[in-house]
Amino acid sequence: MEHGASVTSLVIVIIAAFITPILLHRFKLNIIPVVVAEIIVGLIIGQSGFDIVEQGSWLEILSTLGFIFLMFLSGLEIDFSIFASRKKKAKPENQGTGAPNPVWVATTVFIGIFVISLALSYLFVLAGFIDNAFLMTLIISTISLGVVVPTLKDAQMMKTTIGQTILLIAVIADLVTMILLAVFVSIYGESGGNTWLLLILFAAGVLFYYIGKKFRHQSFVETMAKGTIQIDTRAVFTLILLLVALSETVGAENILGAFLAGTLVSLLSPNPEMVKRLDSFGYGFLIPIFFVMVGVEIDIWSLFTDSRVLILIPLLFIALLVSKIVPALILSKWYDKKTVFGSGFILTSTLSLVIAAAAIGKREGMIDDQMEGALILVAVLTCLVAPIVFKKVYGRFEDEDHKTVVSFIGSNRMTLPVVRELDIHAYETHLYHTKVDKIDERISRNCFDIKELDGYDVEKMKELGVFEVDLIVASTGDEERNAEIARFAKEQGVERVIVRVESPDLSQEMKDLNINVFSVFLSSKALLKAMIEAPNVVDILTKQDSALYQINMNNSVYNGIHLREFPFTGDVIMVRIFRGKDSIVPHGDTELKMGDRLIVTGSHEYVEELKMELEYCEWC
């Protein structure tokens, strides 16, 4: 009977997790993060609402696995390539005297956050709200990557200097507070181990990293990563469980092992397809169960019985604001007040680590159920308020002058004509070739700024800043060298890489690494076939008056609008919509979404008008 009740409760939680995003979409509540909505739904069906969910072994196991997988994906979300200094330009009106170094600024801001959090924690201890200042410091200083990252993406700021700085602050906060949480358990936990035993965990992580680095490009591994074997996915889950088990063995929290597993996989530059599968499994199944159960277990009504807790909630919210906004004032040296305030506000959002710290504090007897509920409730409020205020105060980063920076490695008759035809207002190009390459003197005397290299050594090119760009085009005369450059560019965090290779095996390897492949043979064959079968399509691609254009949908005013209701009536036809990795044939019922890439054709004047409307229009 108990087993039946447990399964019934699991079904209720699964259904709740399923309908939550549907309700958000139906009522156009996209501004609320899905994880926050899941907690709210948990409140409705749990102790604070209808109380129709009973705790059981099924829910306990799946909820724990969901938390572990959430910590793994949080580690996986960290892009360590952003620690490399990139020469990006921010918009002049948002920036003051020179572009700051994101790593230096982020480190300084986080130190300020931690110091202020420590001081505020002692005030909470003196006021009698909590007994342990260390635990309270971790709660106040943490930042939610899961809220910061999508908010920055939505605001088109991920590739800007200020966006990188905000992201780095969140990354450092995630790393430091997670490690300190493990140290906290080792020092204060009744069943905790010795702090030095954590070194065993990190040593194991280093060992697994080098093993993974050695075998990740082996041909037999790539063969077994396909079909029913999926050896790469099996390796990830094995790594998670090994590090979780080792973490618990040395007296740390299991989530530290999961977080470490995520950072190791991130450092190994995993196949994007595998990351997509892991995201689908985590955010599609395990993680929603965890967040719904967080809401189920909170008894809001019990919070009103303790006046001390009611006073704590607004005070803690204010403490979170002060601890983030005050250190963010350092940014005022380079940015205007609106940018500084918006940056400080989005850093206030916190969730996962607060839940972890509250659960640990309750388990160790440092806080009671009411205090745990109050801490989680404040974390949920920050995730609701921070993104909304950020978007209202700051809006989209209006970087109209930003150019896509492209490095062409191999300056020849293949790349030079392309460079000449690229829009100089949209692209900043850099050409490289070796001194031994023969380039026609008539070409070299043109307006091309070609930089000579002693050789195509990737480490030397890295020192010259060749890979500090948005796009790499590897098109030397040697396809093996092109492949080597392309692999290294991906490891350095270059978002888009195009490589010229001809052999099918090498081409498939590049595609598996999410690298775009250009083949002279295949391109010529495809063009000849198109000229025979569909000459009008070739005209569209080659003639300026009927060319195809890409427009990025950045204007929130048109988010969710159907094409048949779209007010723009110019001489423009939408040919295709790319959404993530999906390709959509547009029709009247198709909805426009933020981040869509629209492929259109029509007169140049109308295309430019539509581009201004969708890409550069002010947010309301």
Features:
Rossmann fold; 6-stranded parallel β-sheet; 620 residues; transmembrane; transport; Na+/H+ antiporter like fold; globular; alpha/beta; 4-stranded antiparallel β-sheet; Alpha-Beta Plaits; Sodium:proton antiporter; 3 domains
Structure characterization notes:
A six-stranded parallel β-sheet has the order 3-2-1-4-5-6. A four-stranded antiparallel β-sheet has the order 7-10-8-9, covered by helices on one side. Residues 85-97, 396-401 and 436-447 have low confidence and may be disordered. The protein has helices spanning 2-26, 34-45, 57-76, 102-126, 133-141, 145-154, 161-188, 198-215, 219-224, 231-249, 254-267, 272-297, 300-303, 307-328, 337-346, 352-363, 369-393, 416-421, 441-444, 458-463, 479-491, 504-512, 520-533, 535-542, 604-615; strands at 404-409, 427-434, 450-453, 471-474, 496-500, 516-518, 548-552, 572-579, 582-584, 597-602. The radius of gyration is 26 Å and the shape is globular. The termini are far apart. Strand 8 (572-579) and strand 9 form a beta hairpin. The chain contains 25 helices and ten strands. Helix 2 (34-45) runs parallel beside helix 12 (272-297), helix 5 (133-141) packs antiparallel against helix 7 (161-188) and helix 16 packs antiparallel against helix 17. The protein has three domains: 7-84 and 103-394, Na+/H+ antiporter like fold (Up-down Bundle), CATH 1.20.1530; 404-533, Rossmann fold; 543-616, 2-Layer Sandwich (Alpha-Beta Plaits). Keywords: Antiport, Ion transport, Membrane, Transmembrane, Transmembrane helix, Transport. One of its GO terms (biological process) is proton transmembrane transport. One of its GO terms (cellular component) is membrane. Its main location: membrane.
